[in-house]
Amino acid sequence: MHDLSRRRLLHQTAAFSSIPLLGSLAACGTTFPSDPQIDGRLFSLGVASGEPWPESVVIWTRLARHPLNGGGMPDLPIAVRWEVATDDRMRNIVRKGIATALPKDGHAVHVEVQGLLPHRWYWYRFSAEGEESQIGRTRTAPAAGQRLEALRLAFASCQNYERGYFTAYRHMASEDLDLVLHLGDYIYEGGSHDRRPRRHNSGEVTTLAEYRDRYALYKLDPNLQSAHAAFPWAVVSDDHEVDNNYANDLENNLSVSPAEFLKRRAAAYKAYYEHMPLRRAAAPRGPDMQLYRTLLFGDLAAIHLLDTRQYRSDQPNKDTAGLGDDRHGDPRATMLGPKQEAWLYANLAKRDHVWNVLAQQVPMMQRRRPRANGTRYELDQWDGYPAARRRLTDAIRKSATQGVIVLSGDEHENWVSDLKANFDDPTSPTVGAEFVGTSISSGGNGYRTTRQFQRVIAANPHIKYHNGRRGYVRCTVGRETWRTDLRVMPYVTRPGAPIRTPASFVVKRRMLNPLQV
Ligand code: FE
Ligand code: CA
């Protein structure tokens, strides 16, 4: 066990406070944790909001006076007052109430605030035991079916705390956004390692208490807190919230039985729910969690958040360390499970929205990787499940759904691609576009697009672009065009990196190929 030293926390806070407060956040009243005495403060883990509906949004916090040591709260329910206002000084309060933080939920608080007006900014705050949380800002979705001209969102994934600073979130917090999507690897479950810029607080986590302390470590990050406080988020988990490359009830290296692994999955899902601004419908029951869902933004966008971990069949050739040549595996192989597949295809057939967004964990495009021993594929991604991918692209084509945009995480690199009806036939129709987000910090500083990557692009005519730096992706969604700006930084192993946009793409709704602009 490694205790995060007070010295390290002081250092981290000092490094952050040397960064000037961002204008838009200062203006909206969001405050940053500036107290180096993190232990002892009730609202040490910040606030968050999410799941915007036209009249309702979730606001979240978790009480934790000793966040890295089980929360440090008494074994008692605690009354938490919450308030929602139309102004950043919390003067015009329009909704308020009392929530109860329970020991069995790690003293997490999820409030589904009802009776709000569509398409509005709101500010919110919690208080308990004489202490107040920071003020968070959130935004409701437009009214159902309302004609909407624009939606601004960002998406991110893969934030290994040990590999770098979450500087990207400080930049994200100063963007002008309606929504943030997190596509998985919010924590990493692994142990602590020497010679890394930051350090995990324990060995590999497997129990509820350990997962909670790991989330608390990540949630203490001031930059992550600032991005949560600035916008509503919608989150889905990938593998590292539980165990690297797990598949359904199968642990990565099959070292425990499915029954044993489901106990770990139940602990991991519970801790995930406790720390995310999710609706009660997503609260896990034992090892099961209903995570796939749709968020609607007027008539402009239906965002389908998928779960590609909980129901998938095992990766083919799982012992081959990720890469393999067996991409003609079992035609019954599934990424989403039959129930989620049917749900998704029914939603895609509705065609009520200008854009249908699939926000999900792992890259969907085919990537042939030329190697000395032949072509290789990444089998944990959709490339390991070609029959499942083909069923999805067939469903898109049959329903004549327009404007399909796939947003993916997992890869720790930006990739931009056409989504082909049949990736093995370059002349087959393009049924959508895919943008793969890079990591927030996983993998460290990143790398240039070397010859190895150029060879992959050359072997896959549908692929347009690669970038191996860290950051997030910003999307500006209009009625005729979808614009994607890749936002990356030169380093993450030290705080304070600047951000830039090395490439932007525009997708026209009736001509889906992303064109670099
Ligand atoms: Fe990752
Ligand atoms: Ca992953």
| Unreliable segments of 5+ consecutive residues | 1-37
Mean of pLDDT: 91
Strand order of the largest sheet: 5-2-1-11-10-9-22-23-24-25
The count of β-strands is 25
Given the C-alpha coordinates, what overall shape results? globular
Radius of gyration: 22 Å
Helical fraction equals 10-25%
Compute the number of helices: 9
In short:
By secondary structure, the protein is α+β, with helices and mostly antiparallel strands. It has helices at 6-17, 23-28, 167-173, 208-219, 222-230, 258-275, 338-348, 386-399, 451-459, and strands at residues 47-50, 57-62, 78-85, 93-101, 108-113, 121-128, 131-132, 136-139, 151-156, 179-182, 232-235, 293-297, 301-305, 323-324, 355-359, 369-371, 374-378, 404-408, 414-420, 430-436, 463-467, 470-477, 481-489, 500-508, 511-516.
Can you walk through the features of this model?
- By secondary structure, this protein is of the alpha+beta class.
- Helix content is 19%, strand content 27%.
- 51% of the residues are buried.
- Residues 1-37 have low confidence and may be disordered.
- A hairpin with a 3-residue loop joins strand 22 (470-477) and strand 23.
- The structure holds fe (iii) ion and calcium ion.
- Calcium ion (CA) is lined by residues 184-185, 238-240, 410.
Helix-strand layout with pairing:
Layout: H1 6-17, H2 23-28, E1 47-50, E2 57-62, E3 78-85, E4 93-101, E5 108-113, E6 121-128, E7 131-132, E8 136-139, E9 151-156, H3 167-173, E10 179-182, H4 208-219, H5 222-230, E11 232-235, H6 258-275, E12 293-297, E13 301-305, E14 323-324, H7 338-348, E15 355-359, E16 369-371, E17 374-378, H8 386-399, E18 404-408, E19 414-420, E20 430-436, H9 451-459, E21 463-467, E22 470-477, E23 481-489, E24 500-508, E25 511-516
Parallel strand pairs: 1-11, 9-10, 10-11, 13-15, 15-18, 18-20
Antiparallel strand pairs: 1-2, 2-5, 3-4, 3-6, 6-7, 6-8, 9-22, 12-13, 14-17, 16-17, 19-20, 19-21, 22-23, 23-24, 24-25
Helix pairs in contact: 3-5, 4-6
The protein binds fe (iii) ion (FE) and calcium ion (CA).
Fe (iii) ion binds next to loops.
